[in-house]
Amino acid sequence: MLGRFLTRAGHRCLCANSADEAMTILKGQIPDLVLADVMMPDTSGLDLLRTMRKDDRTREVPVVIFSAVSEERYVNEAMALGADDYWLKGSLKAGDLETRIRAFLPDHASDHAAVV
């Protein structure tokens, strides 16, 4: 659903259903932003973030954790690992989400990709 929202808002979106799939995408393309959930089918979004921050190619890519998990320990761990922000699902309206996403994209980057 997030991928559809981003596409409708004019972004080019590379969607992954797992952290492993996201890493495969990142080997071929470096997006301007990664949105990841804490809870993913194989490896957690925090593990994805950890891997991205260790890789020279993806170290500087903004990563936002966008999750329904609100436990403070996960928020703290994400930020300690280098997340650029942590958003709670259900706490943002569509317009707010678009504004927050644009804050992480280069100027005039409405067509830039995000991995979700």
Write a short abstract of this structure:
The chain is an alpha/beta fold. The protein is 41% helix and 16% strand.
Explain the overall architecture.
By secondary structure, the chain is of the alpha/beta class. It has a single domain (2-115), classed as Rossmann fold (3-Layer(aba) Sandwich), CATH 3.40.50.2300. The chain contains 5 helices and 5 strands; from the N terminus they run αβαβαβαβαβ. The chain has a 5-stranded parallel β-sheet, sandwiched between helices. Helix 2 runs parallel beside helix 3 (45-54) and helix 3 packs parallel to helix 4 (72-81). The longest helix is centred in the first third of the chain and has 10 residues, at 19-28. The relative contact order is 0.24.
Low-confidence runs? none
- Mean pLDDT, nearest integer? 87
User: What is the CATH topology assignment?
Assistant: Rossmann fold
From the N-terminal CA to the C-terminal CA, the straight-line distance is 10 Å
